[in-house]
Amino acid sequence: MTTQRLTMAQALVKYLAALQVEQADGSLQPYCAGVFAIFGHGNVAGIGEALWAERARLPTWRAHNEQAMAHAAIAFGKARLRQQMMAVSTSIGPGATNLLTAAALAHVNRLPVLLLPGDVFASRAPDPVLQQLEDFAHGDVSVNDAFRPLTRYFDRITRAGQILDALPRAIAVMSDPATCGPVCLALPQDVQTHAFDCPTSFLHPKPIRLRRPAPDAGELARAAAMLRTAKRPLIVAGGGVLYSQAGAQLQAFAEAHGIPITETQAGKSSVPWNHALNTGAIGVTGSPAANALARDADLVLAVGTRLQDFTTGSKSLFTQARVLGLNVQALDARKASDTNLVADAQVGLTLLSSAVQGWSADPAWTGKARELAAFWVQRVDDLTAAPHLPAGQLPYDADVIGAVRDSAPDSDTRDVVVCAAGTLPAELHKLWRAGAPGNYHMEYGYSCMGYEIAGGLGVKIARPESEVIVMVGDGSYLMMNSEIATSVMLGRKLIIVVLDNRGFGCIQRLQIASGSARFNNMLDDCVAPGGEVPVIDFALHARSLGADSVHAASIDAFRAAMEAARAATRTQVIVINTTHTRTTDDGGCWWEVAIPEVSERAEVGEARAAYVAAKKEQHP
Fold first, then answer.
1. Helix/strand/coil (H, E, C) string of 209-238?
2. What is the pLDDT of residues 286-298, one digit of tens each?
3. What angle do CA 568, 573, 576 make, to 5 degrees?
4. What is the mean pLDDT of residues 308-337?
5. What rounded mean pLDDT belongs to the chain?
6. What is the CATH number of domain 384-577?
7. For residues 492 and 546, what is the distance between their CA atoms, to the nearest angstrom?
């Protein structure tokens, strides 16, 4: 066995630089597309030096915030449909703990990212070092132990040679469609620099071949038998359809058997928005067409979805239907399911279609679905017409969405919209039109405020040919905006649309609907004695970070700004004032938000009574 004398960090980086993944056509591409890094005393001398040496094969980018750069890395993996991933490197202490929110986000969304936080000295010789947490009851604990429940795989490399086993394990977890998620290798700063005799074979890893698990024969037979008995079936397409690249198979399945399609937040763009059987968004943020069908369906085929509460209306939406869960992850397949089919979405749909060949839904059901889908297409046109508003009347989110859409060249399907939190996810889920897989990039598993701009950067790195449009509220913008500067520094142009409603408008509406008073959400309601309402100039702030920016005083001005932004070559920020008091009323369904049993406010009592009544419709 031939060996090469390397530090642990050098061996790690060389492995990542050499690792490839096989594509569907048999071609190979790098699996790790790059490393985001913010250096400190826990990683600059070890992994930092190793990254410099391999910079030609494995690019390194510097960001401005550790959480943000992890969001960008995660968004890259999502935009690449989990076919590639990125790594992030931080120092110890706050650099490491800044990754915790991003780790949870990736875990919830089943997205790959390799977290490489620095750690304290394995030798313990200089303990306690700067930024070291000391646990009086556990001498081997560092802040990185907080990653254990937030990652799919965790390891601490206490000897250089351990990387030979730990790194391939971490990659195997990330690249398995059933276990995909964040992994963490905590790297003590002294161990990063320790040399060992690294086998040359480790530096030439075999290409990854992504698995497509086929279903068990018995499960397939039971699923087919169940489907054949349905007269009013409905498909719920989740993110697994996109990650399996099964859009074509889903469309063919629906057409062959006359089954209407609905899409979750993660599954939106699985099929074109204007497909005759695509009835739109499902659930709390769903279209009236999709939700009407969900209430009448006798069977729901849940493909690649984890059936979170926004999809199921907190288990109140399709209580009358049997559920057939098709998912690569057994736990997700079994959720709310009468029967489950554990398989890759592409393989599972193909085999299930063959197993029910000749069967189709009741023609009246298929016809009704087509009518509802066509109605919703026309209704979206009306809702997003972005009218010329009277002076003094602020637009709402749908007006802005329509103006963004209409600014695109005819038949242009390159736009990718990025969002995560606030009112916009509901409006975009209903109203955005995605013409190609991945053109709708919504982080709604964790719905993390602050993801949007950083996520947009990751999408632009993954899809440089696309116009990446980040739509973000003022609240999320204030939480995290530093990667505007990174996008300028890296030459990755974004169009960032800031909808300023002067506070947390989405939560205030929920607050009032729950019977509570206006409190601690809108800026006007939060002024303390001696304070004053802040006047925030988002356009000026964006310019200070290196972007071009403008404040649009009207929808007409916004249209002109969008045209100019599309023609530009650097990051553009367009700010427009909007109202939080108006939303799209069409569609939606109940969502469980617990209301206090007792309160001094009569409004809370009324909300509680409505809540108790609604829970009676909830599936146990």
1. CCCCCCCCHHHHHHHHHHHHCCCCEEEEEC
2. 999 999 999 999 9
3. 125
4. 94
5. 96
6. 3.40.50.970
7. 12
How many C-beta atoms surround the C-beta of residue 169 within 10 A?
Answer: 13
Q: Specify whether the CB–CB gap between 331 and 337 falls below 8 A.
A: no
Quick one: how far is CA 396 from the chain centroid? 24
Calculate what percentage of the chain has a pLDDT beyond 70.
100
Choose the weakest-confidence range: 140-154, 268-282, 405-419, 592-606.
405-419
246 Cα distance to chain centroid: 18
In the structure, what pLDDT confidence band is assigned to residue 427 with cuts at 50, 70 and 90? very high
Residue 462 host element (H or E)? helix 451-462
- CA 518 to CA 90: how far, in whole Å? 40
The Cα-based distances of 514 to 308, 585, 597, 613, 614 in angstroms read 21, 18, 12, 14, 13
Q: Beta-carbon neighbour count of residue 348 at 10 Å?
A: 30
Q: 199: helix, coil or strand?
A: strand
- The values of phi and psi at residue 576, to 5°, are -140, 135
Q: Pick the closest to residue 86 from 61, 67, 104, 65 (CA basis).
A: 61
Q: Is 362 exposed, middle or buried (0-12, 13-18, 19+ CB in 10 A)?
A: middle
Pick from 232, 229, 252: nearest CA to 362: 232
How many angstroms separate the CA atoms of 42 and 577, rounded? 43
3-203 shares its CATH topology with 384-577: yes
Residue 134 and residue 140: Cα distance in Å, rounded? 9
Specify the CATH superfamily of domain 3-203: Thiamin diphosphate (ThDP)-binding fold, Pyr/PP domains (3.40.50.970)
Fold of 217-376: Rossmann fold (3.40.50)
Q: Does the pLDDT at position 412 exceed 70?
A: no
DSSP letter (8 states) at residue 206: P
Q: CA torsion 130→135→138→142, rounded to 10°?
A: -40
Residue 182 neighbours by CB distance under 10 Å = 34
Q: Quote the CA–CA distance of 565 and 567 in Å, as a whole number.
A: 5
- Show the beta-strand stretches assigned E in 424-559: 440-442, 468-473, 495-500, 548-552
How many Å apart are CA 444 and CA 285, to the nearest integer? 11
Q: What per-residue confidence (pLDDT) applies to 411?
A: 57
Q: What predicted TM-score, i.e. pTM, was given to this entire model?
A: 0.97
What pLDDT score does 70 carry? 98
The residues that bridge with 326 in the sheet, in sequence order, are: 303, 341
CB atoms within 10 A of CB 168: 15
